Amino acid sequence: MISTEQIMKFLPHRFPFLLVDRVLDIVPAKAVVAIKNVTCNEQFFQGHFPEWKIMPGVLIVEAMAQAGAVLLFSSIPDPETKFVVLSKVDRAKFKRMVVPGDQLRLDVLWVRQKGRIILMKGKAFVEGELAAEAEITATVLDVSEVKFPLT
Fold it and tell me: What is the pLDDT of residues 107-132, one digit of tens each?
């Protein structure tokens, strides 16, 4: 199991954009199972939608991508010298609304790697029911290649 503190060593995201609370299981270069607890205190519920609190689909995909990034960082040599960016999302489908009180189980599979491009397939479940799925492509950059601030 990987705690939030350990996840923050892998991911640059911080509140309110860190969308992975815990990693339950990880097999490097194979798969990760992570959790996102959805609470009524999430900032995005202030505007999406105040009277009908629904987690935005794009943030469910982002949660899958962040879980995939934890998998990726745990699978590559010298992760501290790398920066991962989301490159593409394909075949995103949303099957169920995600609301406060739900716990998202994020299952992400490593499909293939070609050079510094990694394809993963993610699924998000609530109580065993498929909420969303997507194919996620990420690009691994050397930190030395990234110019900050990004412009």
Answer: 999 999 999 999 999 999 999 999 99
Structural domains in the chain, CATH included, are: 4-145 (3.10.129.10)
The torsion defined by the Cα of 96, 98, 124 and 122, in degrees rounded to 10, comes to 90
Write down the residue that tokens 């609304």 correspond to. Answer: 97
Task: List active site positions.
Answer: 48
What DSSP letter does each residue of 92-124 carry, written as one string?
EEE-S---TT-EEEEEEEEEEEETTEEEEEEEE
pTM of the model: 0.93
Instruction: Name the residue type at position 137.
Output: T
Question: Two tokens at 140?
Answer: 């691994």
